[in-house]
Amino acid sequence: MSKQPVSILAFLGWLVLFEAVLVGIIVLVCSYAPTVQGPVITTVALLGLLAICRAAFKLLWNRMLMDYPPQEVPAHAKSKSFQSFSFGSVNMGLSINAAADDTYLHIEPILPWRLLGASSASIPFDAMEPLTKHKAVRVGKWTMAGPKWCLENAHKPPKTADFAQSE
């Protein structure tokens, strides 16, 4: 069984605590070492941003997609780069390379997000429950929204067997 994502409230609580520590460091540097405040604030801000992104990917995004390991993308799959998706409480605007074949929706975060720990996934269309909007589906207990072309196979009626049609 996969680990459940951290609740958004718990994540936001840890985020506020982390930000309070960063602000405390910046205030101390401004008070006691004003000559180096520029480089220290820049370094603390950049490292803080990287740590927050890594935590969001590891604790939220990756855990939501853990049940859908990446599969090989066939050559005939329709694909586009820099697509926008949201999965549960995580929004990945213009940062997903997507491909759709007959069986899977393959989603791969852009390189900077992969370097920070975001995982790729291949979600089978039969695991998607269509919602009333053509840009959203239910995957397990999460709602996933994305481009219409990516989710159109989830909205197609299931194929019936030939012998069932002849009756």
Q: SSE layout and pairings?
A:
Blueprint: H1 8-32, H2 37-65, E1 78-87, E2 90-100, E3 104-109, H3 111-115, E4 121-124, E5 128-130, E6 136-139, E7 142-145, H4 148-151, H5 162-166
Antiparallel strand pairs: 1-2, 1-7, 2-3, 3-4, 5-6, 6-7
Q: Determine the number of helices (DSSP H or I, runs of at least 4 residues).
A: 5
From the helix content, strand content and strand pairing, which structural class follows?
Answer: alpha+beta
Cα(first) to Cα(last) distance is 42 Å
Which sheet architecture does the biggest sheet show? 7 strands, antiparallel
Gross morphology is: elongated
What's the gyration radius in Å?
Answer: 21 Å
Characterise the protein shown here.
This protein has 167 residues and is α+β, with helices and mostly antiparallel strands. Helix content is 41%, strand content 25%. Strands 4-3-2-1-7-6-5 form a 7-stranded antiparallel β-sheet. The longest helix has 29 residues, at 37-65. The protein is elongated, with a radius of gyration of 21 Å. Mean pLDDT is 90; it is low at 161-167.
